[in-house]
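Support reply, case 0932

Customer input (verbatim):
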Amino acid sequence: MHSLKALLEPSGIVVVGASVSPGKLGAAMAESLASFPSSVALVNSRSTDGSMFPSVAAAAASSPVPPDLAVLCVPAAATAQALRDCAASGVKAALACAGGFSEAGEAGAAFETELLEAVADTGIRLLGPNTSGFFVPHRSLRASFVPGVSGLNEGSVAVVAASGGVNHVLAFQLQKAGVAVSLGIGIGAGLDIAAPEVLDYLVAHEETKVVALHIENVTDGPALLSAVRRLTAHKPMVALVVGRSDVSEFARSHTGALATSWRTTRSALKQAGAVVVDDEMQLVEAAAALSGQRLAPSANPGVGLITGQAGPGLIIADALHNAGVSVPRLSEQSQAAIGALLPPLTFQANPVDTGRPGEGYDEIVAAVASDPSVDLLAVYGLTEPIADLPASIASSGVSGTLPILVGVDGPDNDVERTRKSAQDLGLPILSGPTSLARGLVALVDDARVQFQRGHDIAAPGNFPDVREPLAIKGRWDNIKGPWDEIRSKELLEALGISTPPRRRCADRAAAHHALTELGVPVAVKLVDAGILHKTEIGGVHLGVDSPGALDEALDALQAVGAREFLVEAMAPGGVDLVVGARRDPVFGPIVVLGLGGTAAEVLADVAIRTVPLSERLAAGMADELHGRALLDGFRNGPVLDPSELSRIVVSLGNALLANEGIAEIEINPLRLTKAGLVALDAVVINA
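Our regenerated output:
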């Protein structure tokens, strides 16, 4: 039995703090729960007319079905004691709606401590506090004080939201989109029940076909990612992460804080199998597209697009191409079949422009859907009084042979009529060219992350054995600091990463000897483990090509405090990258790849992965960079070998996994030259 069964599948309910006064929380909650088909007992110790029980104990003793869920409509100061009273009467789960806990200051923090102690002492499961509730329409269970929840229909999308308000927003939007919800839950403060447990519950929830996840903050990254992996192995999940901008002050007054890196969270969720979107409307569109259908895992699924109007079709096709989605040219056989049904004025190679739907439209649908390059069918059109797009698709006989997504526009009444027709035929439908394109991208993204998952997550053999501490060649028997640049590069060499020839020089004479040995030009640098950014203090001199130039560089370095020097052969020109591994406070070890040099932080053109990861998964990181073209021989420049890069990325990640004493390793720049990748600078930081 899942630990959330008493919360989401209760036999009986008790409302503590119920009221008959309109406008009060207890009254609104009692009204919402009135449709629950089993016992709902109302408790208010101040009630004198006999309409409510004076205590939870009295309600439990008198109810025909003992309550296993308590809905607490009491202030923060009374919540902990109410929870204890409920547990003493056999209640197994509780919803706490009140705010005023740690987000409200010192007094609220004391109430929160009392509440946590009550949860620990009783073992009762707690949702909240600071949430507007949850609902399970299939069970006629609506534990929410928000007006309008009684009108939520049974659907196939489960909403798991950090915020009770967002839970309701998404539920209403999904209903408008024609898919409705199977379950909606607002985590609130999440003092006990958090998103990972709800995701685990949804794995076996038959009514749920797709999950919409809204995240404001992550406290246990590994737990969340494990739950996402388990869920997405069975059902698609769409995720929206809040926190791209710094709104932490407002967040603290809400339910907590936006303490998680937005970019890292999105990357980690995608790696775990989620489709990641940018806003709540994309979340609704993606969930609608994925409800009840899913592409087979594929690295590059092809979309066949049929449009009744060329202009909207161009918007859709353009959006798909910009998202990297394949719209393949149809085979000559398919084009011949379509050409026999359409006038030669229309484009027929994909997208297929049909003009106004007419006779033979269903045959066109069948021809596109049966093309070997098409894995996903999209049909768009303006509503027509003489045509029913969903019915035409159904009559084509392709339903059930591949995923299909329909898009329509027109007068509201006509769109609603078409939506009803699509629902009756089991066809997901969206309104608007851009919405249709985003729904298609979600289907393709899901197929891609599942393909990636099958090759990189599900196969443990793809990961090297990183259980043993890193063996460092040479004179070290451990990996303790301090780490200056020379020692850091020796670590990189131990990992098999190329670095330029160099010499550690204790004085000027040694530096001149190194110049003779290495040849010109050279780089001359300050050596100091305490200075991470040497360039900022004038600690790096490049292109030193003579003894005189070397003396000038040494004078400048001594002026900024250098007591030891690094003389290093200059690398040839190329493209600079930054690659690093660090211990994220939420998700644990991660690796980061981006365009390097001094502009790295400004451009923020990066790809992120959690570790361990396979070399195959690491090789795809470069493809996420906006500047990817720079690595493909741009202007006769060097060409990246993805396998060489992936080996470096995986090695850095494994070094962190195997060595708790290392907090961070960064190579910036890692230069791509025509001879390969070479680490020009390195920083290692102890944990």
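We compared this against your earlier run and they match. Two observations from our side: The longest helix spans residues 433-456. The longest strand covers residues 662-673. Please reopen the case if you see a mismatch on your end.
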